[in-house]
Specification:
Layout (H helix, E strand, L loop, with lengths): L9 H20 L4 H11 L17 H12 L8 H22 L3 E2 L2 E2 L1 H5 L1 H20 L4 H26 L11 H26 L4 H28 L2 H4 L5 H4 L5 H8 L3 H12 L3 H10 L2 H21 L5 H15 L4
Antiparallel strand pairs: 1-2
Length: 341
């Protein structure tokens, strides 16, 4: 079988891809120093501190699925994309370990982050080990040099995105030096979209796709990353805590400069001025959320997400892809950016 015989619902698709990738991911982590491997297992949600196994999926596995589907969209078996899936999952987790330290985040997926559970130095070491393991995994793949080129490009953008994210956080809410929505969009593409695009492109590359298809899937993943981040921003303010695992208005309490906030501040609405003053005081997050909505920030974020989803569809329609796998890819993308419903 070269690809799927029929498109399936996104949750089942994610589960199928995780099941395909998990053995190879465990085998790769098993090559690490035992202590470092334990920290990696904890980061993936496979074990507790001390190594006691737990039953957990370790997240949705979005990047894994994109790599598998990238291979299938090229007409290859999903297993052809497994080395790409392993590499991008290792890089994604490496970036989370380091991001949590930089951002001072104490919890992730309702558990202490690795640096809180093991210490800052060990968490840095575990992140470095995962990065090295990702490079090793791709270097051993059939398209090693080209695969590493794609990964290194995505990593460069990931670093740029994180650097901009840290710098944007220090800028004022109002005035000529305030953060504009366009700047945030570029940061989201680099920080989130680059690795999503890389996942799909790497899967297609290992599946034997021509360069035009590989490049198209990279572009599609970048648009997806922006849309995904925009929906996350909406959920970070108005999401149901039972679904998101975060308190309502959580991003406002943490004073994050997310797209709904920036779009509201950039509007000509009378609410924008009142919002800027309220954000500067750091008080009344519920009132701030109401002002953001009044100034059009929520609707602007969702409209922008829909625009990038349309761009994904245009990119996918412009290249030859295996039809059923392409439909599954569309189903997954739609699922990921319509979590506001």
């Amino acid at each position: 079988m070269t690809a799927l015989t029929s498109a399936v619902a996104a949750p089942e698709l994610l589960g199928r891809c995780r099941a395909l990738v998990r053995p190879a991911l465990e085998e790769a982590v098993g090559r690490l120093h035992p202590w470092v491997g334990e920290m990696a297992g904890y980061a993936f949600g496979w074990c507790e501190v001390g190594g006691t196994p737990v039953e957990a999926s370790g997240g949705k596995g979005v990047r894994q699925a994109l790599a598998v589907l990238g291979a299938e969209a090229a007409g290859a078996p999903g297993r052809a994309g497994v080395p790409a899936a392993v590499a991008v999952e290792l890089v994604h987790t490496f970036s989370l370990l380091h991001d949590d330290i930089m951002d001072g985040d104490a919890d992730r997926r309702r558990r202490p982050t690795v640096w809180k559970a093991y210490g800052t130095g060990p968490a840095v070491l575990a992140g470095d080990a995962l990065f090295a393991l990702a490079v090793e995994t791709l270097a051993a793949s059939p398209a090693g040099p080209e695969a590493l080129r794609l990964l290194s490009g995505a990593l460069g953008d990931l670093v740029r995105g994180q650097a901009d994210d840290l710098l944007l956080a220090a800028r004022p809410w109002a005035g000529p030096h305030r953060v504009r929505p366009g700047e945030y969009r570029t940061t989201a593409e680099h920080k989130t979209g680059a690795l999503l695009g890389c996942a799909a492109a790497l899967g297609a590359l290992l599946g034997g796709a021509p360069p035009t298809v590989v490049a198209a899937l990279d572009r599609a993943g970048r648009h997806l990353g922006i849309a995904f981040q925009l929906v996350d921003d909406v959920l970070g303010i108005w999401g149901d805590p039972a679904v998101t695992g975060k308190p309502v208005h959580g991003d406002l309490r943490e004073r994050k400069k997310t797209f709904p906030v920036l779009a509201a501040l950039d509007s000509r609405s009378p609410a924008a001025g009142r919002l800027a003053a309220l954000l500067a005081s750091g008080e009344e997050p519920a009132r701030a959320a109401a002002l953001i909505e009044e100034a059009g920030g929520r609707s602007a974020a969702l409209a922008e997400a829909r625009r990038h989803l349309a761009a994904v569809e245009a990119v996918l329609a412009g290249v030859p892809l295996e039809p059923v796998a392409a439909d599954s890819l569309r189903s997954l993308l739609d699922f990921l950016v319509r979590r506001d419903r």
